[in-house]
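Task 17 of the worksheet. Students: predict the tertiary structure of the chain below and write it out as structure tokens. Keep your answer in the requested format; marks are given for formatting as well as content.
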Amino acid sequence: MQEKGSISIHTENIFPIIKKFLYSDHEIFLRELVSNAVDATQKLKSLGQLGEFKGELGELKVKVSVDKEARTITISDRGLGMTAEEIKKYINQIAFSGATEFVEQYKEKDTAAKDQIIGQFGLGFYSAFMVADNVEIFSKSYKDDTEGAHWTCDGSTEFSLETTDKADRGTDVVLHVAADSDEFLEAARLRTILTKYCKFLPIEIEFEGEVINQTQPIWAKQPAELTDEDYTKFYQELYPFSEPPLFWIHLNVDYPFNLTGILYFPKVKDELQFSRNKIQLYSRQVFITDEVKDVVPEFLMLLHGVIDSPDIPLNVSRSFLQADAAVKKINTYITKKVADKLAELYRKDRTGFEEKWSDIGLFVKYGMLSDDKFYDKAKDFVLLQNTAGKFFTLSEYQEFVQANQKDKNEQTVVLYTTDAETQHSFVQAALDRGYDVLKLDAVLDSHFIGQLEQKLEKVTFKRVDADTIGKLIEKDETIESVLSTEDKTKLQELFTKAISNPSMNVQVEALSPQDAPVIITVPEFMRRMKDMQRAGGGGGMQMFGSLPDTYTVSVNANHPVAQRVLSTDDEASQKLARQAFDLALLAQGLLKGEALTAFVKRSADLLTA
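Model answer:
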């Protein structure tokens, strides 16, 4: 038998465009052809389980081989095979998906069949023409009394179909590699592609005499079957040379969508350049992409691992996700599972959770900032740490400080430091007053503080160096100044002259004699806006990043230094005022360069005077 005819195109696009531009990356051809071979094999297994195929299954490997001299790549399977009529139906009619028809036919008989069949679009076969200028199919159906069929096509709309002697059932697809695709004749290149896309296919894939895949990846197993060692070993396979994960979540749901996978929590330090694109998306164990931003919420992109779902809709090339209701449901489900896992860890082992906080704190805060539903769950286990190293939940901390840190307006004032060493004098001043100070020194904390002020009632946050301690938490008490109004004005003028810097706004205040003689602060609002801009606030925050730094210089009217500055001659008063000011700069870590050198020399002079 020999027959010639024209391929029937069932799409709006012309064939040359489909075969050349259907896929974003030409290496995809191997994934598609191997997936088709796996489909054919899975179908035969399903028919065997249903009793509709009574022959011996035998070895069901898919074999890939390359012949560099002959310039051919061959993909062979021992699956269903095809008759000549089936080739005309499934190959010649573009976009007629055999997998779709098979699932429809057998969905009532075998619910597992639907989940085992990879093909969706009926277009994968034509990816072969991206790298081949001629493609042959040698196939023989599993059905009794059928002849082998040989189909060939040179990439035009013309094909040739004839009978052929083929001893065994199954299909061989032979690609005659085009001159511009020599890279795919290299065995190392093909092995790389197979390892990338086919590493976890459910049927053994053999290349150069070696099976390259694991047919039962651990995410396809039940959690009860697995040990911690299994999970950590798989993590090391996915991410060689990485530190062990902190913990993981095994996803396993079949309603209202099908989703399996394992999400690992890596060690994430306080840095914004965290590693993304570490979650791999599979569809029925076929690798699709590591671009999962539509499926996984933005803040969960910090996680590593694998997600496998046949319910995530892809475009025809399987390379890009198509957002729809199913994707949104999966996105919501993953968020909930992560929040539930963290809550469980917190409840079961508070101490262990606290020990991991330095690694997961950034992740939790990022999630709270990104997703209100996650915030609602995480507010019960997000932790705050004070300068003494003690951890609190939000509610615990409010209860801890509200009695002592309520101001005259009944606002609870939370004091914090972004650098406990640099701001040590301010931290100590707060502790001396009996106040508590939190450490909020992570990159996202400026945004996190803003969120907490919006969410928590009658709570405000102030950095310890944002003002003098008496003004940070204003009480119904006043400290009287020992200076007259005239002396205060004179003192302000002397310090303004000694400092000679328009960015330094000098004011004389009645503080405790135990407080420092001069205190330099940055207004909380301005400093916070600049911090948020540096942390990536964007938008309206940009204007604050371009403004010059301005500082408030509070001169303590009740400190003995104030009296000395007022009572000495002009030259001596200027030297004392500058020395006191430089001490305040030093406390803020702002004394550098020439000014620091001058301060050291002046200090030596004063010691020997």
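Marker's comment: The chain has a mean pLDDT of 84. Residues 305 and 341 are 15 Å apart (CA to CA).
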